[in-house]
Amino acid sequence: MILRKAFYWWLFPSAVILPVWLLIGWAIFGSGGWSFIGLLILCPVLFIAMLAIGGIIMARKTVRDTRAVSWWDVGLIGAWHASIVAFGCFIPGVMSWLAVLGILLGLAAFWVSLWQLVTEARMRVQQTFEAYERAAQPQQVRRPEALFEEGSEVIVIEERRDER
Asked: Is residue 157 in some structural domain?
């Protein structure tokens, strides 16, 4: 549960930290000049994508209530963020594979988080409709004559008012 809660708190800061890491990594590991132009395009796109996926994850009521993401989210987002960190090291020969892996993991994180949101929303709507159907059921009212079985003794008490 601690790991899931840590990813919950990491969702939105990572949208800023990881794109900045790519720029810092470019400065430290010094790739070619054209890669900086690519980073200037990639960083805002990555920022928006991470905010969108974080927003979809936060839209789930179970995530907001428990303040913890699901294990699917931990796995996909953890792998996605690891690929971004590795890409920021600008290792020659594997950069293109890391870029493809990062894009695929980002798409997978988007679709899985959207699938979880739709599934949870569908379940909550179904529970709400079932509650409305139970509330709309006509109440069974027992008729007074149905209260007594044949041959049972009935005591009737009559009240009289004394007028003085």
From this structure: no
* Residue 153 placed within a domain: no
Q: What is the pLDDT of residues 4-17, one digit of tens each?
A: 999 999 999 999 99
pLDDT (tens digit per residue) in 94-133: 888 999 999 999 999 999 999 999 999 999 999 999 988 8
The string of DSSP letters for the chain reads -HHHHHHHHHHHHHHHHHHHHHHHHHHHHT--HHHHHHHHHHHHHHHHHHHHHHHHHHTSHHHHHHT---HHHHHHHHHHHHHHHHHTT--TTTHHHHHHHHHHHHHHHHHHHHHHHHHHHHHHHHHHHHHHHHHHSPPPPPPHHHHS-TT-------------
Domain assignment present for 83: yes
Identify whether 41 is part of a domain: yes
Read off the pTM. Answer: 0.75
| 34-48 pLDDT tens trace | 778 888 899 999 999
Q: Which domain holds residue 18?
A: 2-136
